[in-house]
Design goal:
single chain, alpha/beta, Uridine Diphospho-n-acetylenolpyruvylglucosamine Reductase, domain 2, about 25% helix
């Protein structure tokens, strides 16, 4: 499987199976057929489609700091988000930031602190935990600290058949109704 993935996705597919991608904070042992580290949302969608077409299980992985073994694979492809670590935009005056899922929590906290703001949730292991995993698992109890944080998934969401769904944007923040961002995030 690694050879097939490497033909399709090149260097994004790791050679071998590094042990750090096969467990989390629990140290429960896992096994995988391949580890892929995409660099873009489009590459995530392509990997999802590849796995979907072949009925290969996928385990998304953030920083591996979870204590519930949710990122411990039992075969299939580990989709590690480490390389999705860009800050897309930051507007401190509007208290709005757009980051990719692999941005380490500590880096986000430092960036907003430098602008006189605070990112209150504290999931622990800030240099290793990633914002995507924090949001998906409610690590650090973000709902209690930032009740207005409703557009975490405002970026287009990618699905296995390469469908692209917009879950909202900053302009929709105050609109009542179904919050598509929260409905999709962590699902």
């Amino acid at each position: 499987m690694i050879a097939d993935l490497r033909r399709e996705f090149g260097e994004s597919v790791l050679q071998g199976l590094p042990s750090e991608y096969l467990t989390d904070f629990t140290r429960a042992p896992g096994r995988a057929d391949a580890v892929v580290l995409p660099r873009t949302a489009e590459e995530v969608a392509a990997v999802l489609a590849w796995c979907y077409e072949r009925e290969v299980p996928i385990v998304p992985r953030g920083g591996g700091t979870g204590a519930a073994a949710g990122a411990v694979p039992d075969g299939g492809v580990v989709l590690a988000l480490d390389r999705l670590d860009r800050v897309r935009s930051f507007d401190p005056e509007l208290w709005r930031i757009h980051v990719e899922a692999g941005v380490p929590t500590g880096r986000l906290k430092q960036l907003v602190r430098e602008s006189g703001l605070m990112f209150a949730p504290d999931p622990g292991a800030p240099e290793q935990s990633q914002i995507g995993g924090n949001i998906a698992t409610n690590a650090g109890e973000r709902r209690n600290h930032l009740p207005a944080l409703g557009d975490e998934c405002a970026s287009p969401v990618r699905f296995a058949r390469r469908a692209r769904v917009s879950a909202g944007d900053a302009a929709q923040q105050a609109v009542r109704g179904i919050n598509r961002g929260r409905a999709v995030c962590g699902a």
